[in-house]
């Protein structure tokens, strides 16, 4: 089985966000970069699938400034992925260009069976790349996947509103976007980390994937920090008095009910 | 003048989010085309007309009863092309978030997903969306995008009053055959009959301070008294006290209700990421130093097991006078 996993490097959740003076983006000095948490589920599912089949390869692919984003590929390779592809480009491409470039890189490798991704990246929260990638590759997709199996046909389950679940059956190659709950990602072992350093890593340019930096569809601008919240109003007294005052404030001051 | 296409999810009734978008579409002065895809959805067309749709495109077929990314994408693409609209609006949901990027790619266009601000005029569309877990926002500018797709979070825009005399021209679309590469085999119903967290206008959430899953019943009682949906923090979902579908936060659901009541939730960044867009936040915690108080509108330091039942009582008194 030829399996691909598309991953993204994102600022750690705890990062304090500061804006550039011209508000064209965030200040990136001092940021701790990590693999997008949802992509860890994608890598884990790919490794599990390769293990269950007893054969096959897991190739991790990413796009961004190669000197930085290669770390995310090495992390995935330390978890167990066989090799990596980095598409060297500026950061913050839009989902359209990102997906098109990833599709181009995957197509260069010939036929594939499954592409795993995370359901979204926690930096821009667009949740768009998996679907555009699937469209570009001409294959079906399932997003927000919490259950997956590939014995015979492929079955993927996703959770929707009200705790309902949609169960899909897929014929042939596809893109599967992983959600929390799909599995428990393994940690990279020390020998794994040592081995990862020697695993093959292919470097591509955006042009190698058939794309150009100008081929974006949306651009983010005029970044703003959220308005300062007014200071919290503390409500004192015993439980009865607190509850009474709160209910009164919610109904008469905040008028939310 | 441009046209605007509003995609409406085919459910029993129009969602509040769809009404918000129809209202904004009508107010823009553009001609409004609504699109309905599903089974037994024809009946919703009249309501869409009352909220501003001049034309309603309908694909109503038993084969469209359950969501299929393949057939829905094909149907929506045909509808948008036929409408001639250069702006397509949808209310953010697990269906639209799955569907819109695929359709946009098919039309070589971009999507602004998960937006919280929409400015739609007769000639332009601007949207703003949260980034980095709500720690900042940015404006989305469309470049070289023939059709501009915007997905709005529910509860961000006003709903206008319906015009009961308004009617629309309906047009039927036959369901596509699809590629057959993907089939929706089954939709397993959820147990919850409440409004989903992502659409709820009021949410009562519990954290580690609830001590166990059993204790969530006091939150259920409060929620029932005020028509709220119950949520939870990650710690609670990970401990298995409640299902993951109830988790609010960065790795759970992003919510933006009018009122968010956090009981026994300390306020880890991961949780704040999912709910800081709430208009009014009430924090109840026994620890006066809990970070949740920095984000709260109203703070109550004390024992939630005493305060929450009292709140239920007070709400019942005040709301059912």
Defining traits:
heterodimer; A: about 260 residues; alpha/beta; Rossmann fold; nine-stranded mixed sheet; two-stranded antiparallel ribbon; 6 helices; B: about 325 residues; seven-stranded parallel sheet; five-stranded parallel sheet; 16 strands; about 30% strand
Q: How does this structure look, described?
A:
The complex is a heterodimer of chains A (about 260) and B (about 325). Chain A is built from 6 helices and 13 strands. The model of chain A has no long low-confidence stretch (mean pLDDT about 95). Helices cover about 30% and strands about 25% of the residues of chain A. Chain A folds into 2 domains: about 1-210, Rossmann fold (3-Layer(aba) Sandwich), CATH 3.40.50.620; about 225-255, no CATH class. Chain A has about 260 residues and is an alpha/beta fold. In chain A, strand 4 (about 55-65), helix 2 (about 65-80) and strand 5 (about 85-90) form a beta-alpha-beta unit. With about 325 residues, chain B is an alpha/beta fold. Chain B folds into 2 domains: about 5-170, HUPs (Rossmann fold, 3-Layer(aba) Sandwich); about 195-320, Rossmann fold. Helices cover about 30% and strands about 30% of the residues of chain B. Chain B has 9 helices and 16 strands. In chain B, strand 12, helix 5 and strand 13 (about 230) form a beta-alpha-beta unit. In chain B, helix 5 packs parallel to helix 9. Chains A and B meet through helix 3, helix 4, strand 7, strand 8 and strand 9 of A and helix 3, helix 4, strand 5, strand 7 and strand 8 of B. Strand 13 of chain A pairs parallel with strand 16 of chain B.
């Amino acid at each position: 089985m030829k399996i691909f996993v598309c991953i993204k490097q994102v600022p750690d959740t705890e990062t304090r966000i500061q804006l550039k003076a011209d508000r064209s983006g965030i200040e990136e000095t001092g940021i701790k970069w990590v693999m997008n948490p949802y992509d860890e589920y994608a890598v884990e599912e790919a490794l599990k699938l390769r293990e269950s089949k007893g054969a096959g390869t897991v190739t991790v692919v990413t796009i961004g400034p190669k000197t930085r984003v290669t770390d995310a590929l090495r992390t995935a390779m330390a978890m167990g992925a066989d090799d990596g592809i980095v598409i060297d480009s500026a950061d913050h491409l839009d989902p359209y260009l990102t997906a098109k470039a990833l599709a181009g890189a995957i197509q260069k490798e010939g036929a594939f069976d499954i592409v795993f991704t995370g359901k979204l990246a926690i930096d821009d929260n667009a949740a768009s790349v998996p679907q555009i990638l699937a469209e570009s590759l001409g294959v079906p997709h399932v997003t927000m996947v919490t259950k997956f199996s590939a014995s015979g046909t492929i079955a993927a389950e996703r959770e929707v509103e009200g705790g309902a679940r949609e169960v899909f059956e897929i014929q042939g190659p596809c893109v599967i976007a992983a959600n929390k709950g799909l599995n428990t990602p393994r940690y990279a072992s020390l020998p794994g980390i040592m081995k990862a350093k020697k695993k093959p890593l292919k470097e591509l340019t955006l042009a190698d994937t058939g794309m150009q930096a100008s081929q974006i569809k949306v651009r983010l601008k005029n970044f703003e920090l959220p308005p300062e919240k007014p200071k919290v109003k503390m409500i004192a007294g015993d439980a009865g008095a607190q509850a009474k005052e709160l209910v009164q404030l919610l109904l008469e001051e905040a008028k939310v009910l | 003048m441009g046209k605007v296409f509003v995609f409406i999810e085919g459910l029993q009734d129009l969602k509040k989010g769809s009404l918000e978008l129809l209202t904004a579409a009508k107010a823009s002065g553009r001609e409004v085309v609504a699109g309905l895809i599903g089974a037994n959805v024809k009946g919703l067309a009249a309501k869409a007309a009352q909220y501003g749709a001049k034309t309603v495109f309908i694909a109503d077929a038993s084969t469209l009863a359950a969501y299929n990314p393949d057939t829905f994408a094909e149907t929506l693409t045909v509808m948008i092309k036929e409408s001639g609209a250069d702006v397509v609006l949808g209310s953010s949901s697990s269906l639209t978030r799955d569907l819109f990027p695929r359709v946009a790619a098919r039309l070589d266009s971009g999507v602004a997903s998960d937006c919280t601000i929409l400015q739609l005029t007769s000639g332009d569309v601007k949207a703003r969306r949260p980034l980095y877990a709500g720690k900042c926002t940015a404006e989305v500018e469309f470049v070289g995008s023939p059709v501009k797709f915007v997905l709005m979070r529910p509860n961000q825009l006003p709903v206008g009053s319906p015009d009961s005399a308004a009617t629309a021209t309906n047009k039927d679309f036959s369901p596509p055959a699809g590629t057959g590469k993907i089939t929706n085999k089954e939709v397993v119903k959820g147990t919850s009959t409440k409004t989903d967290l992502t659409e709820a206008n009021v949410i009562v959430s519990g954290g580690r301070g609830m001590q166990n899953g059993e204790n969530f019943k006091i939150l259920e009682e409060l929620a029932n008294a005020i028509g709220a949906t119950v949520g939870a923090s990650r710690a609670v979902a990970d401990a298995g006290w409640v299902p993951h579908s109830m988790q609010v936060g960065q790795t759970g659901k992003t919510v933006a209700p009018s009122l968010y009541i956090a009981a026994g939730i300390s306020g880890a960044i991961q949780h704040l990421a999912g709910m800081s867009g709430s208009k009014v936040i009430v924090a109840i915690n026994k620890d006066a130093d809990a970070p949740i108080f920095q984000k709260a509108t109203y703070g109550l330091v004390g024992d939630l097991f005493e305060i929450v039942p009292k709140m239920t009582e007070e709400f019942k008194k005040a709301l059912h006078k």
